[in-house]
Amino acid sequence: MKKQVLIGLAAFASLATLAQNSHRTIANPKAKKVATFRPIKAQEVSGQTSSVANQTKKTAGAPYKRIGGSANVFGVTSTDTRAVQYNADINTVGFVYRQGSTWTGIPNYNSGTVSYAYTSNNGSTWDSTVVATSATNFHRYPAGAMYNPAANTNPANAFAVVSGPWHPGSNWQGVFFASKQLSMPGTTANGNVEYSDNLALTSTQRKQDFARTDMQVTSNGNVYVLGDIARDVNDVSSVAAYGWRGAMINKGVYNAGTFTWTVDSLIPNFKLESGGDPISWSAANMAWSENGQTGYVVFYGVDANASVGTSQNSYQPLVYKTTDAGGTWARHAALFDFTTISAVNDRLFATQNNTVLAKPFIAPGEGSSATVDANGDLHLFCSMQSSYWDDVAAGPDDSTGYTVSPNQFNVWTYLYDFKTTATGWDAMIVDSLSCDDPTSDASDPSGVGNSNWLSSGSPLAYDARLQISRTTDGNHIVYSWADSDSTIVPTAHVSTLPDIFMKGYDVVNNKMTCKKNMSLGKSEFQYSSYWFYSSPRIAKPTSTSFLIPATTSKSTDGSNDGDISIDHYYMDDAMFTASEFTVTVNTPGCTSSTGVGIKEENSSLANLNFYPNPASTNGTIEVVLNENAKMDIVVLNSVGQKVYATSVAGNAGSNKVDVNLNNLSSGLYFYQVKIADAKAITKKFVVNK
Q: How many whole angstroms separate alpha carbon 547 and alpha carbon 476?
């Protein structure tokens, strides 16, 4: 995976062409129109059970354990929900999901039934309970967390709290909030469910949609979740018709077994298009300190007061901050010039019509996430590119929405931690992406038909799923994202074989870790870690270790059909140790030689090879062992589907396993060899007919 370390060599080397006090230029760059408007339709293809006859034999996802299943993939397509969460008070990990149809006995079951699963032994065993189900209302895109009453130490006495949008069968109609004590019966009792109906609001409710973003429980006993304010989320014909404007802050307060919900709203002062609609991203983020006193809400767009010809006239974060638990909110560092930060400015290209001006395009295009550290400072994990044009007159009508298109040669999508300071911002570069996202947009040739997931026969788009986590004390942070190895993807620089990457940051000592591939060596998940979540809170099994609870999801039958059932798995070994936080920030990065914090060396294996390569009708996998050991061998196609598997009693010396390739079409394949209990080793070969 050495070529995955773009930040370590190539991306840093490209900075050498930057002259002092000037901006880099690039000959004939491509302009990329960024999809800042991403509406969600209420109707989806009805989820159906996989055609696999015996589903129990599909519950293995080596080396991880299955949590549960859903009727289709749509409940996990957005990272806004932060579906997996760790609660340190009860040392418990929870996961919210839409319940699949195979769990019988649920009253009023439909595809919108929401369940909450939890484990207190790092995934060895799970229990679950239905939190929200209705005969008439369909819950979608659930967010969830665990509220622990004061002084309680028993996980069963904690409460699952969930929220999200709902509809009665067609158009979106509002949001729901539900809660249930974990000890209550799983399938025979519904939780306490409150509906905010946009067609019949009460005196304490406000019109809002998609209350699913960045749910968090603070130690002062509050639960927060962010919703959207829009003109009409059911009219997705245009940006103007949809009319996204701002965010609704929902606060739940525990009250004798239930939660009382109140609302507050923030509507930023964005620059407006000619039609009167804000030049903004239809998304926001929220983060709170552990004690709930300091909070931030982050919007992305062009400030109304940004002047043409300045670096601020671009998509950038507009941040509102509270230091009194949400009593008052104030704008933080309005019109800050991000080009004054060298870690940002050194990686920007000049705009195409003004070579002395560079404008950072800071946005949630690859996902985004925020947290608050021990000092009360915001850490915003999102992507940055270079804006293509200077102003509207020089380019297309919506020129601020264009960036210099990444080519992974001298133009990259950078991943940053943007950190607030007392008077402005600082920034740390985390990494750069090796690949672009698959897309469902037929006008974008970089991703047409290249997604390994389909819905109704069309490509299902996904991004790098950027997420950020912190320890309860706020002294350590971990960034996580998905990316593919550009040297093996079937279509150049399109992320169709994603792994999960993580990198840590020590707030106190200002040091980072090397990047780790947490999917490396996981036989069922390497090159196919789709739809992953990482917990906003980090667990600490020991005083010097950091465990990031995470989940990933796979189609039950391996088809990657988003319209049929999927299974959710818990990753129990995404870890860092204190000794790994030694890397100076904003310097050429590194990749750990191991995927996780567990020793991976395999003393039994001496050599591994496949020949001929390319192959046609037959191939041979040669495994050279230092001692007798069991060998588990799997062959996967380019989308991670298993096409061959066998187990062999290996002997010390050379072991040859012949593989019949007659039924395989031409293309890229992977073979994985697992020796005894060691992690699998994956290599690639090509079939050419």
A: 11
Beta bridge partners of 623: 608, 655
DSSP-derived pairing of the beta strands 575-577 and 667-675:
unpaired
Beta-carbon contacts of 636 under 8 Å, excluding residues fewer than 6 positions away, are 527, 528, 642, 643, 669, 670, 671, 672
Contact 298, 370 (CB under 8 A): yes
Contact indicator for 318, 268 with CB cutoff of 8 Å? yes
Please answer whether residues 499 and 518 qualify as being in contact, where contact means their C-beta atoms are separated by less than 8 angstroms.
Answer: yes
**pTM of structure:** 0.85
pLDDT of residue 597: 31
- 358, two tokens: 């560079």
Kindly state the tokens that stand for 491. Answer: 């279509």
CA-to-CA distance for 187 and 99, rounded, in angstroms?
11
Q: What is the C-alpha separation between 73 and 189, in angstroms, rounded?
A: 26
Structure tokens at 578: 């204190």
Residue 595 has which token pair?
Answer: 């995927």
From the first residue on, what is the mean pLDDT of each consecutive set of 10 residues in the chain (689 residues)?
Answer: 35 40 77 78 54 35 82 94 97 95 74 93 93 93 96 94 96 97 81 95 96 97 97 91 95 93 97 86 96 98 94 96 98 98 94 90 96 98 93 53 84 95 97 87 53 86 96 98 88 89 98 95 87 97 95 92 94 95 86 46 75 90 91 82 89 92 86 83 83
* pLDDT at residue 8 in the model: 39
* Token pair 């698959």 in the structure block, residue: 438
Provide the 8-state DSSP code for 203: T
Instruction: Of 550, 552, 502, 558, give the one whose Cα is nearest residue 530.
Output: 552
Residue 12 φ then ψ, to 5°: -75, -35
* 22 touches 15 (CB < 8 A): no
CA distance linking residue 640 with residue 414, whole number of Å: 27
Bond prior to 29 in cis (omega within 30° of 0)? no
The angle at the Cα of 514, spanning 521 to 489, to the nearest 5 degrees, equals 50
User: Which residues is 250 bridged to in the sheet?
Assistant: 225, 263
Q: How far is CA 309 from CA 22, 190, 273, 506, 681, in A?
A: 15, 57, 17, 37, 53
What is the C-alpha to C-alpha distance for residues 293 and 376, in angstroms, rounded to an integer?
A: 9
Helix runs in 302-368, H state only = 342-345
CA-to-CA distance for 395 and 390, rounded, in angstroms? 8
